[in-house]
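Q&A log
Question type: sequence-to-structure
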Amino acid sequence: MTAESIFLTVLATAALGLLVAVTGGVAYLTSVEWRDRRRLDREKRKR
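Response status: OK
Response body:
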């Protein structure tokens, strides 16, 4: 393997890792917002 191919492999792996991290973060924030909205709706109906 050449130094260039090793560099490109590391770069592609880092890009994939960042993509997974950002996607996971968006999914987490979406689920938290959905859960909070559901809880607030439930509290409004009780009043």
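Response note: Residues 17-47 form one domain.
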